[in-house]
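can u pls check wat happens w/ 2-acetamido-2-deoxy-beta-D-glucopyranose
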Amino acid sequence: MVSAILSRSQSARIRTQSFNSPRASLVKRKWWAPESFLNVLPVVLILIALVLVLGSVAYSSYFRDLSRGNLVPGLVDRDEKCDVFEGSWVRDGNYPLYNSSECPFAERGFNCLANGRKDTEYQKWRWKPKRCDVPRFNASEILERLRDKRVVFVGDSMSRTQWESLICMLMTGVSDPNSVYEVNGNQISKTIRFLGVYFQAFNLRVEFFRSVYLVQQGLPPKHAPSRVKSALRLDKMDEINRKWVDADVLIFNSGHWWTRTKLIDSGCYFQAAQSLKLGLSITSAFRMALNTWASWVETRINTNKTHVFFRTYEPSHWSESNPKVCELTEQPMPDAQGNDRSEFADIISEVVRNMRVPAVVLNVTSMGAVRSDAHIGNWSHPVASFDCSHWCLPGVPDAWNELLFSYLLTDGW
Ligand SMILES: *[C@@H]1O[C@H](CO)[C@@H](O)[C@H](O)[C@H]1NC(C)=O
Ligand SMILES: *[C@@H]1O[C@H](CO)[C@@H](O)[C@H](O)[C@H]1NC(C)=O
Ligand SMILES: *[C@@H]1O[C@H](CO)[C@@H](O)[C@H](O)[C@H]1NC(C)=O
Ligand SMILES: *[C@@H]1O[C@H](CO)[C@@H](O)[C@H](O)[C@H]1NC(C)=O
Ligand SMILES: *[C@@H]1O[C@H](CO)[C@@H](O)[C@H](O)[C@H]1NC(C)=O
């Protein structure tokens, strides 16, 4: 019995990127000299045995605590170690999890079926981690767990999509849809800075803050060259950061706006302290901004209360021959064709790994890499040019939320 509990609790621990690894490198000390080694050997052996015994006692009591009522049934793992982001999509006729046309918070632009898409297979895929199963999202159960809590998404439109997806997933467990509303009565729009949906029956807030760079964008310093129209302050968090601090769950993303077109070509240059960094590469700037974010989490966030997540770059599928269109498929691609690599994703993982407080990387880059069937394409609203970056809802962002919540629930939340 005990061993069964143990292996289930272990399986429940999703591998994360962080674990209190200090930023400063450790100083190596030579603690024994070879000639004296034989003399101390018995002592060393006794110490090792002691450590093993104490370690296993501590280990089992820790996992016994964790397993107390907090396991998600179904997160079953044969190998006792499961990276939920490594896996594949399997067809599952029980998906999708909701109907966007019946969810007032799914924006029309993401509702591909309402915008004329005829094939529906793209909605019927479930993410299957290689070594374990993610339990199906149970809206009633998760609403109960989220009672009195505040879930905050921060980032660009990909965060807005995940925010909408979560609200629609949760709404399937709400008996009176009118008891769920945007707190300011606002409509969803692309540039709005704040949207907050309140689930009255559960005293739950699910919020979105638009902050595409996470750091502050403002006027350039005086005497800047005339081509510099604005400056991105790599050492300063976006001024609305105060609003994020007391959340119970904080999910960030950034990446899609770190392009030449949106930055340099639009007159936006980088700045650190008082000086412009005219020649700084975009990836170096991204890394600096992310380190600013990491220090902010370390100093401002009480990670005893707040669970912090950072989602990696979500792959897009623009055609290589014509970067204004995409060849959307009706099925996921058989292989990732290089879309599973992203320099931004690597930087995110590296920065989070070096943080002094716990934060989790939602490593979604490779799981989206094969989903050339799941983008908006030309089923947008109003009909615009092709969109090979955003995702249809229901769709891929629902899987991000399933992973997010299976993580939270197995983490003893
Ligand atoms: C993200 O997931 C992919 C696929 O499993 C893996 O190759 C990659 O190493 C992961 N990245 C991190 C930082 O864990
Ligand atoms: C989604 O809901 C709309 C409106 O109720 C309905 O017309 C449509 O058939 C539903 N779609 C699916 C796939 O169930
Ligand atoms: C969802 O969770 C609720 C409450 O825990 C439970 O009663 C219900 O059976 C679950 N539904 C499914 C489909 O598992
Ligand atoms: C968080 O919890 C730890 C261990 O219980 C405690 O030492 C620390 O003071 C707490 N931090 C805050 C900010 O409450
Ligand atoms: C939309 O794209 C599909 C292929 O992805 C194409 O068959 C269809 O003609 C396009 N529709 C419009 C209105 O451009």
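The pocket of 2-acetamido-2-deoxy-beta-D-glucopyranose (ligand 2) is lined by residues 99, 101-102 (CB under 6 Å).
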